[in-house]
Amino acid sequence: MAESKGKPAKAANRTPPKSPGDPAREKTAKRLSLESEGGGEGGAAAPSELSALEEAFRRFAVHGDTRASGREMHGKNWSKLCKDCHVIDGKNVTVTDVDIVFSKIKGKSCRTITFEQFQEALEELARKRFKDKSSEDAVREVHRLIEGRSPVISGVTKTVSSPTVSRLTDTTRFTGSHKERFDLSGKGKGKAGRVDLVDQSGYVPGYKHAGTYDQKVQGGK
């Protein structure tokens, strides 16, 4: 009995019971807090549509590299972009100018440039490419050369003409057994050109005058 009296009594729960309207209030407060957070951060988090210039940048950035993410561009693809989009005109802007600008814009320990650095590089080349225009107009003209463009793929299936190859593939120069494999037009005879086929059409194998009997009989009459 003494032990039971010595134990402190449990504190009564003084939290008032929630009223029936509390769940609705909590949902409203939660929705308002989410909307306020979305107004401050939602604009940055929401995916924005790519501009025509950035789309071209990503197309050239992934060209020839299946592991590329499209967010960075190597010097080789940068040079191809400037060449395919005619930023290089051979007069005001040369391949050397393009390489110098790339080395200037990229970081010392980096081998690639980002889209922001890409825009800076274009500003450098725009002043060289369009000397007779203002800075803003020159940049705008360079962007027009690049927007919506894709890497040019040409010359992949082009055959190389070689005297040695022509000599080896010219059937008129074949001799011996190789010559027998082709007809006068150069078309292969197939099995007949590789294997000696025996004519079994007559009573005597290899008879060369098959089909001439009727002609001889009619001629005799």
From TrEMBL:
Residues 23-34 have a biased composition (Basic and acidic residues). Keywords: Cytoplasm. GO terms for biological process: astral microtubule organization; microtubule bundle formation; microtubule nucleation by microtubule organizing center; myelin assembly; negative regulation of tubulin deacetylation; oligodendrocyte development; positive regulation of myelination; positive regulation of protein polymerization. It is found in: Cytoplasm. SUPFAM superfamilies: EF-hand. Signal peptide: none annotated. GO terms for cellular component: cytosol; microtubule; microtubule bundle; mitochondrion; mitotic spindle; nucleus; perinuclear region of cytoplasm. GO terms for molecular function: GTPase activity; magnesium ion binding; protein homodimerization activity; tubulin binding. Residues 1-49 are annotated as: Disordered. It comes from the Eukaryota. Coiled coil: none annotated. Gene3D superfamilies: EF-hand. InterPro entries: EF-hand-dom_pair, TPP/p25. Its main location: cytoplasm. Transmembrane segments: none annotated. Belongs to the TPPP family. This is Tubulin polymerization-promoting protein. It comes from Dipodomys ordii (Ord's kangaroo rat). The lineage of its organism: Eukaryota, Metazoa, Chordata, Craniata, Vertebrata. The gene is Tppp.
